[in-house]
Write a structure and sequence with these properties.
- The protein is α/β, with parallel strands linked by helices.
- The protein folds into two domains: 170 residues, D-Maltodextrin-Binding Protein, domain 2; 91 residues, Periplasmic binding protein-like II (D-Maltodextrin-Binding Protein, domain 2, 3-Layer(aba) Sandwich).
- Helix content is 43%, strand content 21%.
- The strands form three sheets. The protein has a five-stranded mixed sheet.
- α1 packs across α8 and α9 crosses α10.
- The longest helix has 20 residues.
- The chain starts with a strand and ends in an 18-residue tail after the last helix.
C-alpha cells in the first residue's frame, strides 16, 4: 500500500502508524508522482494517487469510497507563485512541479479557461533558491509550499484550492485512494479489509488531531497555529459534493483537450464481488 510522504496524509495513516497496520500490509511512502507510477506498474496495489492520474488511468483503477485529500477553498499547500498576475503569463515560462499530476492539470485548466498560453516546463520544485531565474511562475506543492518563502521572489501567490472554489463553488479533490481492478478481481476480501483499516485509521486520526498537529510542527518546523490552520482546511472524506467536483474537474479537462477521453467515476464495492 502506498502512503503519501507529505503531512497532509498524517490524518489518514495515524491509526496505521499506531497499531492498526497488520503484518500482511506493507506501507510504501513516497511523493504522489512516484506512487502514481508504482500503482500503474503494479508495484503497489492500493495507494493514494493524484486525482488527475486516476482520470488518466480510470479503466485500470477503482476509487476506494470515502477517502481523499481535499479542500473547500484555501489548501495552503498547492500554490502558483508568479512574478506577475496570471493573465499576464501568456507566452511566459511556468515551471510545474513533477510531484503531482493533479496540480499540474489544474494549472493547465485554469490557463486554458482564461485563454492564456504559457510555456510549460516540468521539473523538481523544492527549494526556492535552486530555481532558475528564467521561470516566470512556479507550481509549488506539498510541504515545500508550506515552509518556503515563495512570495519573496514571486509576489503573486495564488492558492489553487481557493481559485477553484471561486471558479466553481465546489471543493477540490487533490488525491484519491485507489485499488487496481486486477487486484480486486483476485482478492476482493483483501481489498475490503484494507479499505476498512484505512477508514478506521482515519477515524483514529480525526480523534487525535492534537497529536497530528504536534507531529506536523516537528516535521516542518512551523508554528503550531500554522499547522493547525493547515489541518483545519483539509478534508479526508469523499462525500457527494466532492464527487461532483471530481466529475466537473474531469469533464473540464476532457473538454479542454487535457484528457483524451471522458471519465466514468467507479468506486470499489465489495458486494459486487
Amino acid at each position: 500500500m502506498g502512503k503519501i510522504s507529505y503531512i497532509n496524509a498524517f490524518p489518514v495513516y495515524y491509526g496505521m502508524d499506531h497499531g492498526l497496520c497488520p503484518q500482511w500490509l506493507e506501507l510504501i511512502p513516497d511523493v504522489p508522482a512516484v506512487l502514481n507510477r508504482k500503482i500503474k506498474t503494479g508495484e503497489i496495489h492500493i495507494s493514494p494517487i493524484s486525482s488527475a492520474f486516476y482520470a488518466m488511468n480510470h479503466e485500470e483503477l477503482l476509487i476506494l469510497p470515502d477517502l481523499s485529500i481535499s479542500s473547500h477553498g484555501k489548501v495552503l499547500s498547492v500554490l502558483l507563485a508568479s512574478r506577475c498576475p496570471l493573465d499576464q503569463l501568456d507566452g511566459k515560462t511556468v515551471l510545474l512541479s513533477n510531484e503531482s499530476a493533479t496540480a499540474a492539470s489544474l494549472v493547465k485548466l485554469i490557463f486554458a479557461r482564461r485563454d492564456v498560453h504559457p510555456i510549460y516546463q516540468t521539473g523538481p520544485v523544492n527549494q526556492m533558491n535552486h530555481l532558475k531565474n528564467s521561470c516566470d511562475a512556479v507550481l509549488v506543492i506539498g510541504d515545500s509550499a508550506l515552509t518556503q518563502p515563495w512570495s519573496y521572489a514571486y509576489p503573486h501567490i495564488t492558492d489553487l484550492g481557493q481559485l477553484w472554489l471561486e471558479m466553481t463553488g465546489l471543493p477540490f479533490v487533490f488525491a484519491l485512494w485507489v485499488v487496481r481492478k486486477d487486484v480486486v478481481k483476485q482478492t476482493p476480501e483483501w481489498v475490503a479489509k484494507a479499505h476498512d483499516i484505512l477508514l478506521a485509521s482515519r477515524k483514529m486520526g480525526d480523534d487525535k488531531i492534537e497529536a497530528i498537529v504536534a507531529k506536523g510542527v516537528q516535521t516542518l518546523g512551523l508554528e503550531p497555529r500554522q499547522v493547525q490552520e493547515y489541518f483545519d482546511r483539509l478534508y479526508c472524506d469523499l462525500d457527494a459534493p466532492k464527487l461532483a467536483a471530481l466529475d466537473l474537474f474531469f469533464t473540464s479537462l476532457f473538454e479542454q483537450g487535457i484528457l483524451e477521453s471522458r471519465v466514468t467515476i467507479e468506486q470499489f464495492n465489495p458486494e459486487n464481488y
